[in-house]
Amino acid sequence: MDRIKWEEYFMAQSHLLSLRSTCTRLSVGATIVKDNRIIAGGYNGSVAGEVHCIDEGCLMEDNHCIRTIHAEMNALLQCTKQGVSTEGATIYVTHFPCLNCTKSIIQAGIKRIYYAQDYHNHEYAIQLLKQSGIEYKKIPFDARQVAEYLTKK
């Protein structure tokens, strides 16, 4: 029997993390991986101790929820808090990263971005990724495919 591929495994982890999201606008999950080992994960939600969008609604400004910290940033900050280097790592994200997250990913030394869905892919973010030599690749994710692996076991 075939085993699930690494890319599918880590993307599934990101989708699982997205289920913890507290923002009602979009559920996003991110998993940072180094040497096929998960070093951090994050989902989009409020600052620790702050109310959540699911409880009190989104705090909107210029069509963006300013209450929410993005999944990619939460995963990067987890590495910072734990003193774990992201140099040369890969990030798996349920959606293409926003411009600010893209810039942070570049600065953190991450070398590959794998994402499942396009989401307002910013032209400048793509330009920065190309300039930085960072590989970015869309990896479609189908939860039914993962379920099939489980039912075959």
Query: Which CATH top level class fits?
Result: Alpha Beta
Radius of gyration: 15 Å
Can you summarize the main beta sheet? 5 strands, mixed
C-alpha end-to-end distance:
9 Å
Put simply, the count of helices is 6
Q: Name the helix and strand elements from N-terminus to C-terminus, one letter apiece.
A: HEEEHEEEHEHEHEH
Look at the helices and sheets and give the structural class. Answer: alpha/beta
Please state the second-level CATH architecture: 3-Layer(aba) Sandwich
Any idea what the shape is? globular
Instruction: Name the CATH superfamily assignment.
Output: Cytidine Deaminase, domain 2
Output the strand order for the largest sheet.
Answer: 2-1-7-8-9
Q: How large is the share of residues in beta strands?
A: 15-25%
Unreliable stretches covering 5 or more consecutive residues: none
Query: Into which percent range does the helicity of residues fall?
Result: 25-40%
Mean pLDDT: 93
Number of strands: 9
Number of domains: 1
